[in-house]
Design brief:
The protein is mostly helical. The protein folds into three domains: 47 residues; 111 residues; 133 residues. A two-stranded antiparallel sheet has the order 1-2. The chain is flat and about 110 Å long. It starts with 5 loop residues before the first helix and ends in a 7-residue tail after the last helix.
Length: 382
């Protein structure tokens, strides 16, 4: 907190110096009680960055509204991650500008984050499927309650004109659509949206006598938007997280894996990146070709270097035990030391029907090397 806000740090330091000087340069409970601003900063820091013990005892006692773009910044705009990545790649290609290495890691982190969101929602699909019908009923009920005063007022009216008849018919259509089925097809949603627009036509009455207020109109449009989202959320998620354009820039996959291997802490990203360039509706031949390409990249840039590095680490460890002039590699003092257990702890990686178990591959490589060097006689190598 203090490291990110220099002005807050300066106020805390000034308050501590003032209290310390007023207390004859000694601290006691009374002096600590006078640090009002410092105490407030500590509480705010614990609220923003709570410890595990604090999180375990928290209880939700009221509803919490998630912040939206409009509540955070009225000029903020949503960011479409695949579009940003696609635009970046196309600009470099069209302008013939080399892509600097410093943007390589943020690039595949964006792809990883995008696909991780897709996979998280895919795991929750059974729960979403069970809850979708209930949420649709709730939204439909709220929309019915919002339009019911309009229908009651129009039915009690003694004089009708063309506008009132159109509004009454539109409200009746909306009620019929909301109560005659549990599902909402694209045709029903289109008719519902058109009927809502007609039902919300402004009349000529004063503002204090209007049946529905401007906030009520905004709420009705928001409820219709919720219906559209709930009825088509799977397709919207698929489009929002689609990174199939990377199929045409698949040469980047080799660079992604190489950079990922240099930072073993990012080992889990390989499971996400391998599906980034996949197209669901592609021809089987191209899918097989792309799968072969991914297997080749994983084999050449991940499996082979991993086997050789682990073999070298084991050799250096054995030599450091038997040779006095050699020391055991220390990861703290050696900045180039790679902690490779992140790859060994990975679950098998699925690549289009095939599984690549890094632990088994490394084990097989080490056993084969040991057998070739110790069991087979060197003079009988043929």
């Amino acid at each position: 907190m203090l490291a990110q806000h220099a002005d807050v740090e300066a106020k805390v330091r000034a308050e501590c110096r003032h209290v310390l000087a007023a207390n004859n340069h000694s601290w006691d409970w009374k002096a600590l009680g006078e640090l009002k601003y410092t105490t407030a900063v500590i509480h705010e820091t614990l609220r923003l960055f709570p410890t595990a013990s604090m999180l375990a005892t928290r209880v939700c006692v009221q509803d919490n509204d998630m912040p939206t773009l409009a509540s955070v910044n009225q000029h903020a705009k949503p960011v479409f991650i695949p579009k940003v990545i696609h635009t970046l790649l196309q600009l470099h290609l069209q302008l013939n500008i080399p892509m600097p290495k410093r943007i390589l890691r943020p690039l595949y982190h964006c792809v990883e984050m995008n696909k991780a969101i897709e996979f998280m929602l895919a795991r929750k699909n059974p729960i979403l499927a069970e809850s979708a019908a209930l949420m649709l009923r709730q939204v439909a009920h709220a929309l019915t309650l919002l339009l019911r005063p309009i229908k009651a007022k129009l039915e009690a009216s003694k004089r009708f004109d063309d506008t009132k008849l159109d509004i009454l018919a539109a409200v009746s259509v909306v009620e019929d659509i909301l109560h005659t089925g549990e599902s909402f097809s694209s045709t029903r949603l289109t008719v519902l949206s058109l009927a809502i627009q007609i039902a919300l036509i402004s009349d000529d009455e004063p503002k204090d006598k209007k049946t529905i207020t401007p906030s009520g109109e905004a709420e009705a449009r928001k409820l219709v938007w919720k219906l559209h989202v709930l009825c088509d959320f799977q397709r919207k998620i698929r489009l929002a997280t689609d990174c199939s354009f990377l199929y045409w820039s698949r040469e980047l996959l080799t660079l992604f894996v190489q950079d990922m291997y240099s930072v073993p802490e990012n080992a889990n990203a390989i499971k996400v990146l391998k599906t980034a360039g996949h197209e669901e509706n592609a021809v089987a031949y191209y899918v097989e070709a792309f799968a072969s390409f991914v297997e080749e990249v994983v084999e050449d840039d991940l499996v082979v270097p991993l086997c050789m590095d682990i073999e070298n680490d084991l050799r250096l460890h054995v030599h450091s035990v038997h040779l006095e002039h050699m020391e055991t590699p220390n990861p703290i003092n050696n900045a180039d030391f790679k902690v490779l257990h992140y790859y060994m702890d990975l679950r098998p990686i699925r690549i289009w029907g095939k599984c690549v178990d890094l632990r088994d591959r490394v084990t097989h490589y080490l056993e084969s090397t040991f057998y070739n060097l110790t069991t087979v006689a060197l003079h009988d190598w043929k």
